[in-house]
Input
Amino acid sequence: MTVFPKGFLWGGATAANQLEGGYDRDKKGLSVADVMPGGKQRMAVLASDDFEWKLDNEHYHYPNHRGIEHYDHFEEDIKLFAEMGFKCYRFSVAWSRIFPRGDEKLPNEAGLAFYEKLIDTCLAYQIEPVITISHYEMPLVLADEYGGWKNRQLVQFYENYASVLLTRFYKKVKYWMTFNEINSAFHFPALSQGLVKSNGANDFKNIAQAWHNQFVASSKAVKIAHELDSELKIGCMIIYATTYSIDADPINQAATMIQNQEFNYYCADVQVRGQYPAYTERMLSSHGTSFNALDITEEDLALLKAYPVDYVGFSYYMSSAINVTSDDLDEVAGNLLGGVRNPFLKASDWGWQIDPEGLRIALNDLYNRYQKPVFIVENGLGAIDQFDGGQIKDSYRIDYLREHIKAMAEAIEDGVDLMGYTPWGCIDLVSASTGEMSKRYGFIYVDLDDDGNGSLERSRKDSFYWYKKVIQSNGIDLD
Ligand code: BG6
Output
């Protein structure tokens, strides 16, 4: 007997900027992702003092410009998703296809037409579209000229954008998310807030203000969605890393509690509960700002209260361990979210600590905290696949996913209301943190290397056939 409910949303997830390509086609404007350089130094470049939101073809290459050319191959790609039996497909809309600058009143019809075709293709295969309205790709003008999300004018631009999408597609698309990994700005404000040092990322007040503006924008989107159809489900989306104290020392335990509040909970607490949590002032002041320093109106607070999200979407890749008592800090090089090495865990080739049991904990934690359905909208293993023209044997990826699905089953038995599972990068695409093609997550291999060489041919990996069986058996057949 399967524990996965009937109608469980098995599928896969992608983001426009990482697979579409066609970065300047059909009047699309540049997005922040279009000026993020490829290569392992990407995050360091974005975090440098002098980075500006400009194209710099002389020094950098930009793999997102081409992606995997999904813009031209989407029919073939969705057909492959259908062959695996996907019940849903999570993708994002490139904001700058719809509003090339971001501040226009009227949308670009060519952009809408593209997504209409994409949605219709999914529906033709009975695949439920799940749309992220903004996934690390705000129009460049909004970051460069308007200063990113710290500028309140963006609320209006986003509202207009969300309204256009929702109004156009609400009869075809039931599941939505307002912002991808909204809390990631705690570590990487460039991606989701358009903030780099040259426009204010150094000052936590700007990050907190940007979040507030995004919370208001998110509530406005929820309002629009529910006024169109009260059955629409519109969620938040956070990056969640189960966070352990390295030991039983209460000092480390308290530091873990604070880390959870600052990183895992802060954004979702506002978006799901509709109000700022009790620890807000202490958190803001520990980062050199305060609630009163922010531009927050009574009207904003009423809006947050009235329009919380319907479900909690989250990504889960790794856990994190906290040690503030020892000088001998064994940092984990690759763990993007910081912390120290956990001796009980192995890490991926990119240093992300693999922890399926932590997913069970994450699911219980989020569900019991918020009492709203939860949706794992990203999870997976970034790894190097060997391709010599024959079958791609990615047993390491199958092992990773199997253990995480087992953890999901445990959580469902624990009583968690889990809506679905969309593993990340169901087709190989450009990595967000490094701009590499060689960091692959897919069930489908795409013949393209880090230098842009390759035929772009799509091939089914071993994991493709495995995941197909998992979906067919509704999570029973994991061998
Ligand atoms: C999430 C993002 O953080 O992780 C995705 O929402 C991203 O955009 C994914 O691709 C995996 O990260 P990376 O850096 O390996 O691509």
